[in-house]
Structure formats: structure tokens, C-alpha cells
Amino acid sequence: MPVFEDGARRIHYEVVGEGFPVLTIAPGGLRSVAARWETAPYRPAERLGDRYRVIAMDQRNAGSSFAPIAADEGWDRYTGDQLDLLDHLGVDRFAVMGMCIGGAYVAGLLRAAPDRAVAGVMLQPIGLEDNREAFHELFDGWVAEIRDRHPEADAACWAAFRARMFGGPFLFNATEEQVGQIEQPLLVLRGDDLYHPSSVSRRVAELAPRATLVERWKEGADLEAAAATVAAFLAEHAR
Q1: Potential cystine with 17: which of 49, 128, 167, 172 (Cβ 3.0-4.6 Å)?
Q2: Which class for 193: exposed (0-12), middle (13-18), buried (19 or more C-beta within 10 A)?
Q3: What is the average pLDDT across 188-216?
């Protein structure tokens, strides 16, 4: 994988195809790496690589990517990495697709860069519904794997990091009010489990003024119909 380096930060990424850029943010929570798309029901590089410039990345401190843990570590750091990578690749306007935690990152990018992020696709976005402890457990398990590589971070730093990532409301990085202020077109493929509650997907689609909800999308004819919906959505808005 190519790498974008900036000081101690190293972000590994891959690019497939040519055309209008589509940044894709893989599932896996804080272990979000490009390779996880290979086992997802919808695989962007396969579906879109013949028409778009499909960009995937390992998020910081996942897979091959690395960055020091700062005192104010949180969602904004990840959004900054994503936008910095696009700058490195010479990308101005782009569409963004994210699955699982990638759904929250989609909301973050649509809010942070409204003049650049032209449209978003969320596949089973994470969100809050009596499941905060489950996300805390995922965070703690991830920290146990990488703690030794980060002597700069003490216990208080990790605790503050966890609170910033999973202590917030709704999408964890966006309130219901903030989602309601997203003006770009948004396509939401519904989640249906502890980490991706159906109610969160439906609520995003209700709140965002230009959102559309796809209820079934993971298998067989449902998957093919959803893929056609994604293709039509991007054909209309990712240009």
C-alpha cells in the first residue's frame, strides 16, 4: 500500500480506478482498515472501480497506519487525517462512503467540509441505543493491542480519548441537531444489530433533509438492488 507520511504520522491507503473521487472508510471500529472491505457485503472497489477513483485507507493506529496519541485525541483527528490524505492525493471535491464506524466518519466529513464533500453513503452506521458499554469494551480491547506502541499516552490520556470517542450522543460525533443540518445528499443502508441499531439508521434518514433510507441490502437480490441504488445515487451526485 502507498503511504502518506507527515512527521510521525503514517497513513497507508490504496486507490482503484479513475474518475470522480470516492473516499471509502471501512468497517471495524477503531480497527478500520482498507482490507475489511474485502469481506463486507458491499465492496466499493469491485462495484465502483470502473467508474470512480475509489480511495481506501487504514485509519490511524489501525493496520499499517500509525500516529502518536495526542492529549486531545478524538473524532477530529480522524477527520483531519481523511482530509489531509485527500489533499495529498490532489482531491478537492469528493463523495464519501463509510460502513460501521465509517458512517460516523461520513457525518464528520459532510459537516467539516461541506464545500468539498458533495454526497455521503452510510452502510449500517454506528450509533447510541443502550449500547455505550459495548463500545467502551471495544475501545478497551483495541487499546490493549496497541498500548505498548504508545508510551506517550498515560491512563488519563486513554480515558479522555475513550470519552471523546464514545461518550457523545447519537452518532457519537454528531448530535441529532447536527445531523439535521447536513445539507448534502445522503444514502443510508440500514443497520440491524447492537453496534448498528436500526433506529439510528432510520433516525439519520428522518433528520438529514436530503437523506434516503435503504431497508434491506445485505444478501442476494436485496444486495443487487441496493448496489443499483448506490450506483444511481453516485451517478447523480458524485460529479
Answers
A1: 49
A2: exposed
A3: 98
Nearest CA to 26 among 9, 17, 13? Answer: 13
Contact in structure between 181 and 174 (CB atoms under 8 Å): no
- Which residues, including other chains, have CB under 8 Å from residue 82's CB and lie 6 or more apart? 23, 25, 57, 105, 109
| Alpha carbon distance 100, 142 (integer Å) | 16
Residue 49, pLDDT score: 98
- Read off the pTM: 0.97
Express as a percent the part of the chain with pLDDT over 70: 100
Residue 143 carries which side chain, given as an amino acid letter?
V
Q: Residue 185 has which C-alpha cell?
A: 445528499
Angle at alpha carbon of residue 161, lines to 38 and 170, rounded to 5°: 70
The percentage of residues in the chain with a pLDDT greater than 90, rounded to a whole number, is 99
What would the grid cell of residue 110 be? 459532510
- How many other C-beta atoms lie within 10 A of the C-beta of residue 58? 26
Q: Looking at the DSSP assignment, which residues form a beta bridge with residue 97?
A: 24, 121
82-98: average pLDDT: 98
The β-bridge relationship of strands 20-25 and 3-6 is unpaired
